[in-house]
From TrEMBL:
Keywords: FAD, Flavoprotein, Oxidoreductase. Signal peptide: none annotated. This is Glycolate oxidase subunit GlcE. It holds the Pfam family FAD_binding_4. Its EC number is 1.1.99.14. PANTHER family: D-LACTATE DEHYDROGENASE, GLYCOLATE OXIDASE SUBUNIT GLCE. The keyword GTP-binding does not apply. Residues 8-189 form the FAD-binding PCMH-type domain. It is an enzyme of class 1 (oxidoreductase). GO terms for molecular function: glycolate dehydrogenase activity. The keyword Oxidoreductase applies. Residues 1-22 are annotated as: Disordered.
Length: 374
């Protein structure tokens, strides 16, 4: 199965730096009013990832006007940015200094914002080798349920005061507070890169990746589409050239990784395949999941996409059996679907409820975005 490019438009490049506009006072006032009136708020940045989660009923609180890079020190590899800043604007600024967000976040639309990127916590194909979104968050400034602006963490790795609470915001989808600012660790862009394609079966590809994983090779992308193993190499020019010669294969289109990251391959298009789309997050060396349908493997086996008509409960049971979980995604539902995530166990549900009660006792921030009743 060969996956070609879908027709959804790619994110438009930013031609201007991030606009500098501090809207925190207006945001504080809206949160203060919502807390006073017990009014639920639906937090929105660019709504590029609205499909990822459950629908939220509430008044819209837009962060799109809260923009700007507050502080950037290329020497110290740290940047602090307001939540409504376009992701493309931040990446352009970093690129001009030869740096990047190493976790390779997807956009899904030109409107994608930094706050939405953190709230959803989705990383791209480089995730197993570079780290997750959470790994690069140094600190945050939050607007709390009682309309206070509090800073947690800082701008250096050694400043751990409140650090874990900052990381807790990653993937919380705005259910615990309003992200005001975020400080990130950034890294230099690689000096050289190459993309290869090797025709082989799924099992052969997984065996080869397990073998290569035991060596210090400059691999930063590994995906299998059913017929072809796609490999990305990044690092020093000599290391990339030597590894490329060793692995063999044919040169591949480097744009494959952008299309995979942005879910623009034909595999992800409903026009190509109308069966439900599932994302399985599994241990790297988990065995093949016995599902009917078509599979696309990313993250060297840790992320497995499926197009399958298999019942949701069965898919989630198979994922849990090998130590993972399954997420249902519908790219055509801009406000989410009723049960995208694997239901919480009773123990985890108890801790989620306690955390929500502590950080959002009025239940005003994106209620039930992640799970029903939370």
């Amino acid at each position: 199965m060969t996956h070609s490019q879908d027709q959804r438009p790619a994110p438009a490049p930013e031609s201007l730096p991030a606009a500098d506009h501090d809207a925190s006072d207006a945001l504080l006032e809206r949160v203060r009013e919502a807390a006073r009136d017990n009014t639920p708020l639906r937090l929105v940045g660019g709504n590029s990832k609205g499909f990822y989660g459950r629908p939220v009923s509430g008044e819209t609180l837009s962060l799109a006007a809260h923009t700007g890079i507050v502080h950037y020190d290329p020497v110290e590899l740290v940047v602090t940015v307001r939540a409504g800043t376009r992701l493309t604007a931040l990446q352009q600024t970093l690129a001009e200094a030869g740096q990047q967000l190493a976790f390779e976040p997807p956009h899904f639309a030109a409107t994608a914002t930094v706050g939405g990127m953190v709230a959803c916590g989705i990383a791209g194909p480089r995730r197993p080798w570079a780290g997750s979104v959470r790994d690069f968050v140094l600190g945050t400034r939050l607007i709390t349920h009682d309309a206070k602006r509090l800073r947690f963490g800082g701008e250096v790795m050694k400043n751990v005061a409140g650090y874990d609470l900052s990381r807790l915001m990653v993937g919380a989808q705005g259910t615990l507070g309003v992200i005001d600012e975020v400080s990130f660790k950034v890294l230099p862009r690689p000096a050289a890169s190459a993309t290869l394609r090797l025709e082989m079966t799924r099992d052969a590809a997984m065996a080869r990746l397990a073998e290569w994983g035991r060596e210090p090779l400059p691999i930063t992308g590994a995906a299998h589409d059913g017929e072809t193993l796609h490999i990305r190499l990044e690092g020093g020019a000599g290391s990339v050239a030597t590894t490329r010669e060793r692995l063999g294969g044919e040169p591949d289109d480097a744009d494959f990784w952008r299309r995979l990251r942005e879910l623009e391959l034909a595999f992800f298009s409903r026009h190509h395949d109308s069966r439900p789309l599932w994302r399985l997050s599994l241990p790297h060396r988990a065995p093949a999941v016995p599902l009917d349908g078509d599979e696309l493997i990313d993250w060297a086996g840790a992320q497995r996409w499926w197009r399958s008509d298999t019942p949701a409960e069965t898919i989630r049971q198979h994922a849990a059996h090998v130590g993972g979980h399954a997420t249902r995604i519908d790219l055509d539902q801009p406000h989410g679907i009723e049960m995208p995530f694997t239901p919480l166990s009773p123990v985890l549900a108890k801790y989620h409820r306690r955390l929500k009660a502590e950080l959002d006792p009025h239940g005003i921030f994106n209620p039930e975005r992640l799970y029903e009743g939370l």
